[in-house]
Amino acid sequence: MNAFLQFPTDQNGSSNNSLSGNIISGISFLREGISDAIDKTGEHISNHIVHPVNNFLKDLTHMDHEFKKVQEAENEFRLCLNGKYMTANDILQMPMEENY
Q1: Is residue 7 part of a domain?
Q2: Collapsing DSSP states into helix, strand and coil, what is residue 4?
Q3: Do residues 48 and 56 lie in contact, with contact meaning Cβ atoms separated by under 8 Å?
Q4: How far apart are CA 93 and CA 75, in angstroms?
């Protein structure tokens, strides 16, 4: 941003008027403040949104992996019915409605 603000300087490299020095220091202060705010916003989003969602997805993946492992060990096909995992044979033996 400072590259866009070219103020005349004397031979020592210092600014020849205090207004340009104040403008440059003000812009630098503003740029640092905005940069810090963006960093804090990124940390907040990461800590309060991304990590919980990531942990939730990991939990679902872990539960699915355990379910598949149990299902392979028992060699029985299971279905989720009303929030419970039941074997297909148990579901087929339940009373069912007949729709004609």
Answers
A1: no
A2: helix
A3: no
A4: 19
The amino acid sitting at 28 is S
The total number of structural domains in the chain stands at 1
Q: Is the pTM of this model over 0.85?
A: no
Residue 3, helix vs strand vs coil: helix
Q: Is residue 64 part of a domain?
A: yes
Distance CA 41, CA 47 (A): 10
* Ramachandran quadrant class, 84 (left: phi over 0; alpha: psi -120 to 50; beta: rest): beta
Which pair of tokens denotes residue 55? 């942990």
Q: State which residues form the domain around 87.
A: 19-93
The model's pLDDT over 21-67, given as tens digits with 9 standing for 90+, comes to: 888 888 888 888 888 888 888 888 888 888 888 888 888 888 888 87
Residue 79 lies in a domain: yes
87 close to 76: Cβ distance less than 8 angstroms = yes
